[in-house]
Design brief:
The complex is a heterotrimer of chains A (371), B (91) and C (336). Chain A has 371 residues and is of the alpha/beta class. Chain A has 17 helices and 13 strands. In chain A, helix 2 runs parallel beside helix 16. Chain B has 91 residues and is an alpha+beta fold. Chain B has 1 helix and 5 strands. The chains are: A alpha/beta (371), B alpha+beta (91), C alpha+beta (336).
């Protein structure tokens, strides 16, 4: 522990030294909910140099899920005879009809699982119940769902389905950059998504947009070191793609995992909160697996997405405004009474700000928007 | 996202293995990482090993960091090494 | 604050939602100066002596878990609530609610555990009640334990005695109980090394109280150490700073928490006490605690500072800071 702490301090010193060499204020963006949470929990935000800001992007899979899709999960859970299995992350997200948590308190069968294979096992053990798995997450999590579906097919289960809402990170990054509305000098890239997709996936960010990118792990030290490196790359005017999580991330990623995703899913257009519909940004089940598609089996149609009035989650997760700049933040919208998913989700930017960082100075929020 | 933690394999059995996290033993699925053996370090996520870990690589990378500042500070040491606290956090 | 309409599991978590439940539905009808203190026991001055009275209900699932069972909890929890108010336990009252279909062997084991834990604490069950409810209504068994104790003259533990400069001392590592129970309940694919710390602390506490004028004590149960520290800051109106690297956590506990995305500061403990003592008493408190088996790993984990802001802050391992909040109410494993 002692050594890790001293290494973190070294990384901070390096970050500060690099920041001292910057001409202007810079914003970096991370696109991973776990980076959002860990950066706050480690106290890193309280230690950042004054001229460097770390913004949160669309990295929380729950936060980027459209309101309509969230309503679908809750509606399904409320139907008799259905057991909805979900990761804990989804339990408190609110839709028009409340949340899965509230649905559970009213009698809906909602089960928290650690692995999608638990949902498959549950279905196998209770053939008289319909078991649906809420398949949410980015590429780190998608392979697990894929294996679960292959297992369900092998077992010939007639009572297992998945309500698929998986997303792909690269189309969101591209959309952000194309929009020109977000002012970032570089990206802190998600370590575990990169384990699956490989760091070469991000090459276009550097080559077409000239922005430095650093793949970083999730420990305090790794996040600080990643930021230090990004700051150096900006200071030196050398936009490069660097991998600072080499023990887990390679250039091509996990081929096996990519193959299994390919086998079960195909890219589809998907609606992202704050970004609209992005082509090929989501995943849908291939035809051979449509018997396991909850949308097909239960004839689900996604309701229209209407954001709650005054909610600026879409802008928050695309780095266009800070939580403090949303009129609802901390007043009407709190972790207990959350309006939007950014406040409900344990990885949401708004909840992270509320829990770990009470007041943002005006200077800091000004800097974040004008960059 | 996402939450994944490193663990060492203590037994293997076909597509499954048991990983050790400081004494906790978890059964995981190894289909995403292929051939594994006892003693391998893997990254675990949602009940699956999603990558085999290479710590040799990591050691070399962090050596670059250590070159920057040779003076190691410990957490108990003097006030002068405490980093600046951002004003934004005060009440 | 939104109106509580229907009770959810999180309302029983001891966190923010429990506060809402009490504040909206219970206290408005029952509130009185004694109840409103909302400390671990009610302290009653009879004129001749000072008594402490407490009650706790135990609804843990599964009934048995590594390190203990519902019986051990039922004694430890109530004894500890008395002890942290400075009371010497006089006797416990045990209310059993049994579920139709419960195996008699299970009940026997639980009673055995109650007896054993009682003997450890030197406290007896002096009265009780038994009811049976229909199949499926009580998850096997629920237990309610009331306890009464005597507070020696001259002893007073209360948040109004806390002042700037005081330190917070804990008797050992955190998060073991909550994690042991959650893993046993939710993770069949794991053989966890985490064991509940459930234990009666009255002997440890009495020993320290004989030597040190402790100002205030609480046990960090459902809402974890974070819940305790945030409450302390709010109650006293002072600034409480916890020192993250100083907070003891067993490696197996930390790694299991990491895997599930849980914050150890928010996980329940059932064999821990946090004492607030004057800075000048810190060394002596540590020494006396460490003489007891349940206090071997006692550490100073924080201090009370001068700012009158009622905020609890964590000084992180990295040298940064973040404000602590009371947890929502339900510990949920996450993958993201």
């Amino acid at each position: 522990m002692m050594q890790r702490i001293s290494e973190s301090r070294q990384a901070l010193d390096r970050l500060n030294a690099a920041a001292a060499g910057l001409r202007d204020h810079v914003n970096f963006m991370e696109v991973c909910g776990t980076h959002t949470v860990n950066a706050f929990r480690s106290g890193l935000h309280s230690l950042m140099p004054k001229n460097v800001t770390l913004l949160s992007g669309p990295g929380c899979p729950v936060c980027v899920t459209s309101q309509g899709e969230i309503d679908l999960f809750i509606e399904l859970a409320g139907r008799p005879g259905i057991t909805l299995c979900t990761y804990g992350d989804m339990l408190r997200v609110t839709g028009k009809a409340g949340s899965l948590e509230r649905a559970r308190s009213r009698g809906a069968e909602v089960r928290i699982v650690y692995s999608p294979l638990d949902a498959v096992a549950l279905a196998a053990q209770h053939p008289q119940r319909q078991v649906t798995f809420a398949a949410v997450g980015f590429e780190t999590t998608t392979p697990a769902t894929a294996i679960a579906l292959l297992e369900a097919k092998k077992l010939g289960l007639k009572n297992f389905t998945a309500l698929v809402s998986h997303k792909r990170i690269m189309p969101a990054l591209t959309a952000l950059l194309e929009s020109g509305t977000v002012n970032v000098a570089g990206f802190l890239l998600p370590g575990h998504v990169s384990v699956i997709i490989g760091y070469e996936t991000y090459r276009p960010v550097v080559e077409e947009y000239g922005l430095p990118c650093v793949v970083a792990g999730f420990e305090d030290l790794q996040i600080a070191a990643g930021l230090a490196r990004l700051t150096e790359l900006v200071r030196d005017g050398t936009p490069r793609l660097e991998n600072w999580y080499p023990q887990a991330v390679s250039a091509e990623g996990n081929r096996k995992a990519q193959e299994v995703i390919e086998r079960v899913f195909e890219p589809i257009d998907a609606r992202w909160r704050g970004l609209g519909v992005l082509p090929d940004s989501g995943l849908g089940l291939r035809r051979e697996f449509s018997e396991f598609d909850a949308r097909v089996r239960f004839e689900l149609t996604e309701p229209d997405s209407t954001e709650p009035a005054g909610c600026r989650c879409g802008e928050v997760i695309t780095g266009r405004c800070t939580p403090a700049e949303c009129g609802l933040f901390g007043k009407v919208c709190t972790p207990i009474n959350a309006i939007g998913p950014c406040m409900v989700s344990s990885e949401g930017t708004c909840q992270a700000w509320f829990r770990y960082r009470r007041q943002a100075t005006q200077r800091r929020s000004d800097a974040a928007t004008k960059g | 996202m996402c939450l994944a933690v490193p663990a060492q394999l203590v037994s293997t059995d076909g597509d499954e293995a048991v990983a050790d996290l400081h004494g906790n033993r978890v059964k995981i699925n190894t289909l995403l990482v292929g051939e594994v053996k006892i003693g391998d370090w893997v990254l675990i996520h949602a009940g699956f090993a999603i990558q085999k870990l290479d710590y040799q690589e990591a050691q070399e990378t962090w050596a670059i960091l250590r070159d920057v500042d040779k003076a190691a500070q410990t957490v108990e040491s003097d006030e002068s090494t405490k980093p600046r606290i951002d004003e934004g956090l005060t009440r | 604050m939104a109106k509580v309409r229907q009770i959810m599991l999180a309302h029983g978590g001891g966190g923010q939602l429990t506060d809402e439940l009490l504040g909206q539905l219970v206290l408005p009808r029952l509130g009185n100066p004694l109840l409103n203190e909302l400390l671990d026991s009610a302290v009653l001055d009879t004129g001749r002596e000072t008594l402490a009275l407490t009650i706790d209900s135990y609804v843990v699932q599964p009934l048995k878990f590594p390190g203990g069972d519902i019986g051990r909890l039922a004694v430890s929890g109530t004894v500890n609530d008395l002890a942290v108010c400075g009371a010497r336990p006089l006797g416990l009252a045990l209310g059993l609610i049994l579920c139709e279909g419960l195996e008699s062997g299970v009940l026997e084991e639980v009673m055995e555990s109650v007896a054993r834990t009682g003997a450890e604490a030197g406290v007896r069950i002096v009265t009780g009640d038994t009811k049976v409810v229909g199949r499926g209504q009580a998850d096997g068994m629920f237990i309610s334990t009331a306890g009464v104790g005597a507070v020696p003259d001259g002893r007073r533990l209360h948040p109004d005695r806390v002042s700037a400069g005081d330190v917070l001392i804990i008797n050992g590592p955190i998060a073991d109980h909550g994690l042991a129970v959650m893993l046993a309940r939710e993770m069949p694919q794991m053989a966890s090394a985490v064991r509940s710390d459930a234990a009666p602390l009255n002997r440890l506490i009495e020993h320290v109280l004989e030597k040190v004028d402790v100002k205030f004590m609480r046990d960090p149960t459902r809402a974890g150490l974070a819940g305790l520290a945030v409450d302390l800051a709010r109650r006293t109106g002072l600034h409480v700073a916890l020192d993250e690297p100083a907070i003891p956590v067993r490696p197996e506990t930390r790694h299991a928490a990491d895997m599930l995305g849980l914050d150890v500061l928010e996980v329940a403990n059932e064999g821990k006490v946090v004492m607030v003592v004057g800075e000048e008493d810190a060394e002596k408190t540590l020494r006396e605690m460490r003489l007891n088996e349940l206090g071997r790993e006692a550490r100073v984990i924080g201090r009370v500072e001068t700012e009158m802001d009622g905020i609890c802050e964590l000084r992180t391992a990295m040298g940064g800071r973040r404000i602590l909040q009371k947890p929502y109410g339900e510990q949920l494993p996450r993958i993201c």
